[in-house]
Amino acid sequence: MANTAQLRKLIAEILETADLNSITAKKVRQELETKLDEDLSEKKKEIDNLVLEILEDKQNGAGDDKGSKRKTKDESESEEEDTPKKKRGKKASDDDDDSEEEPKKKKKPAAKGKGGYVKKCRLSPELAKVMGEENMARHEVVKKMWGIIKEKQLYDPKNKQFAICNADLLAVFGVKRFRTFGMMKYLKTHFLD
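and the corresponding structure tokens:
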């Protein structure tokens, strides 16, 4: 196992060539494990602290007194302990810089209008008559249904959470009165593909 002096020297070498805007403590640990060909998970906290110290030395110059380093080290440890509460599902040692990489993976644009809730579906004849179109996306149907209820003032006067069906809506919903927030329960059978 490498001692602290060896680790400090290797970390300094890694940070010399690394892009300080994108490097993280996790990446430094992984590179150390590759160079030393050993598992450093037991020294994770020590390595993280060494990385912080070396970065602070680089920013502030080597003239800082050890007391201020110790204080920042203690502060960084307390921040690491608080981190899991703030970042759900992330390890305390992961730096904020890691979050810059993850959205790049997740930001692949979904094909719009191809699937799920935005997919255009063929409507049943009853629903198509009310909507005025034979193919619509589910969200468009719900939005238009809200518009119809509001425009024709079909809200139940006793309880505005409910709508009272007129002749056209009765053919679609099959009940005289339905809860407006639960309308998809009735509409789902009218989406044919």
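(Above: one complete record from the training split.) Residues 4-102 form one domain.
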